[in-house]
Design brief:
With 200 residues, the chain is mainly alpha-helical. It folds into two domains: 7-45, no CATH class; 53-183, Cytochrome c-like domain (Cytochrome Bc1 Complex, Chain D, domain 2, Orthogonal Bundle). Helix content is 44%, strand content 7%. The strands form two sheets. A two-stranded antiparallel ribbon has the order 1-2. The protein has a two-stranded antiparallel sheet with strand order 3-4. Strand 1 and strand 2 form a beta hairpin. The longest helix is centred in the first third of the chain and has 22 residues, at 24-45. The termini are far apart. Residues 171-200 are annotated as: Disordered. Keywords: Electron transport, Heme, Iron, Membrane, Metal-binding, Transmembrane, Transmembrane helix, Transport. Residues 171-183 have a biased composition (Basic and acidic residues). The chain crosses the membrane at residues 25-44.
């Protein structure tokens, strides 16, 4: 039987070593991985919105949470509901994902304002009461400068993104857009949580 491998010309304590090169396919796969890595880095870590692992996770989380809407039923876009959910961290996070998926091109990633107004200060252009947030998300404002989302978002999503926007008030994000509109009274206090009925 012929052995195509040849021994290397060194020996350690009488131990010899064959020259067993890596398979060509393995070496080319390694080279291809290195060549592909800049493309991967630019795509997923180059700063484009919605492409980072974190952003993809947030979108998947929101999709999963929509399946949980049966847990909370149909939310009413009234002041009590919006304020209550603005204090529920798990649902505020859902509202944040909805916001970052749809609203950052006008309002900035953190609500600091770009084309649209700053949502983190105390000044509001079309809002007098907290429930007005949901009305504007639903129907739009400013001659369609703010588009209507009633045909693109689930009613619960409108309430939850409104709760998130309400929670931004007073954050005063650094580098935010200047005041736009007038200062309005504070949001009402969060209502007490309804007591759960005792199971028989």
């Amino acid at each position: 039987m012929t052995d195509n491998n040849h021994k290397l010309d060194h020996s350690y304590d009488g131990i010899e070593e064959y020259d067993n090169p890596l398979p060509g396919w393995w070496k080319w796969l390694f080279v291809a991985s290195i060549a592909f890595s800049p493309v991967y880095w630019v795509f997923y870590h180059g700063g484009a919105e919605g492409r980072s692992v974190h952003d993809i996770y947030d979108v998947a989380l929101a999709e999963n949470t929509r399946l949980q809407f049966a847990e909370i039923g149909d939310l009413e876009p009234n002041a009590e509901t919006i304020v209550r959910y603005s204090h529920k961290k798990n649902w505020v996070r859902v509202g944040e994902v909805i916001f970052k998926t749809n609203c950052i091109s006008c309002h900035g990633r953190n609500g600091e304002g770009m084309v649209g107004p700053n949502l983190t200060d105390e000044h509001y252009k079309y809002i007098q009461n907290v429930e007005d947030i949901a009305k504007i998300v639903t129907n739009g404002a400013g001659g369609n400068a703010m588009p209507a989302w009633k045909t693109r978002l689930h009613p619960n999503e409108i309430v939850l993104v409104s709760a998130y926007v309400a929670s931004l008030r007073g954050e005063n994000v650094e580098g935010g857009k200047g005041p736009d509109g007038r200062e309005i009274p504070p949001w009402p206090e969060a209502p007490p949580e309804p007591e759960e009925e005792a199971t028989p």
